Amino acid sequence: MRLSIALWVAAALIPGVAAAESIGMTPKLDAVPPPAESTAFKPDPNLVALGKRVFFDPRLSEPQGTSCAACHDPGRAFAPTLKGEALRIGVPAGSRAGHMAARNAPSLLYLRYVPQRYFFQDDDASFPSPFGGFFADGRANSIAEQIRGPLFSPDEMGNRSPRTLQRKVAGTELGQALTQQFGADAVRDPERLVGALGKALEAYFQSDEMAPFTSRFDDFLRKRTPLSPAEMRGLALFRNPDKGNCASCHLMVESSSRPERSLFTDFGYDAIAVPRNPLLPANKDARHFDVGLCQTARALKWPEPDQWCGYFRTAGLRNVAVRQTFMHNGVFRTLRDAVAFYATRSTDPAQWYPGGKRFDDVPARYQGNVNVNAVPMNRRAGTTPALTEDEIDDIVAFLRTLTDARHVALMPDPAADKARSAHAPRASTKTAAIRPDQANTR
Ligand code: HEC
Ligand code: HEC
Question: Region labeled Disordered — which residues (predicted)?
Fold first, then answer.
């Protein structure tokens, strides 16, 4: 890893935390911003209601029929419910026939805690690291900026431009509601319309409805319910720096009864080199790679941006047990595989990378960026993994406690999940496809 990072004095600020310097166009903070308290969010109820309407409106896509909720299903913790071809490939389908999203879609619950982008250098770190920003590569820094992604991507909602979107909204009752809230210009001027939609959606995402904290783990934190022995063992392994070491990236504070301290991500980035998903349309081209954060680094003029190729934002793990596919490229089909990957990526790479081609989704010239130092991914090939099979089961049992009450019934039976563990993904549709009888757990 190249460490030299130039610093410049800049004016960019994150509210409440002073930044004396910046790295490229991103502020460098002297302290990690404290996690926002749940009570800090007081969005205007009218805006929340309007944002909710926008979120579920299927007319906003081209062709019509694909709302935000089509890929962020409220019945699945606002992660996608995949069917048919989308389930086979592992990522959601867009509004246009045959178009698939380039990545897996995350849950949108707890989105209000995602901070704006910043750099921070820990005392024991030799260089500053980036945090925050929306998307797996942090390329958007606000909801207003973020929604341009889905609205104008040909692979998602397919609108050609703010102008065509504006023509669609003007004259509808949604247009009237937006006029009432933001004034007539917000519906007449295409750019303002995108801003208004962003403001409304942001308010919806800030509402308590989008941050329920109703999981068994939350009740455990509040000392209202115990966890089972297997779940407690899983929690201990998750935190133990010599075993799972998961909490070093998937941050949690067991001693705090405030659940917003335990979002199971520090919003940092890492290169853990998940296997390539050969079924993604773009991956038909062997030269195509999704390199993640370094594209953002280039756009924001961070020095030596290539050092961030292969980095993706650490996923929050709340409601992870109701996901159908895992990681930014949807390569894993069971939670157990996602956990087992960490245990044996380094000790038995052939189990995960077809033909033993280690780090097959990171271009050769960036493979030096891959994290080979963090437990449990730091062992030599052929040595004993840091986690036994039983310990992997315990961590899965613990992760299942992070499911909000409303979604508990969606969790697959752990034994069935284990039985269909696929390990190394295969390009052949016959082996990679999930059999229909296993496809849905509902
Ligand atoms: C066709 C499927 C699809 C539709 C429709 C869609 N999204 Fe997404 N969404 C995705 C995917 C895929 C990602 C991850 C993309 C990435 O990381 O680059 C994503 C990511 C996001 C994120 C970032 C979350 C985070 O933690 O950083 C937000 C916020 C979001 N979507 C909101 C919306 C909103 C609002 C709409 C409607 C205007 C919408 N999405 C419509 C597929 C979709
Ligand atoms: C060095 C940091 C780091 C450590 C340690 C780590 N993770 Fe992760 N985790 C990540 C990153 C980064 C991602 C996103 C990777 C991607 O999408 O390609 C991720 C993704 C995941 C996902 C997929 C979530 C989703 O929504 O698809 C699961 C599950 C997960 N981690 C569980 C664990 C467990 C269990 C452990 C401990 C055994 C662990 N992680 C240790 C950084 C880490």
Answer: 413-442
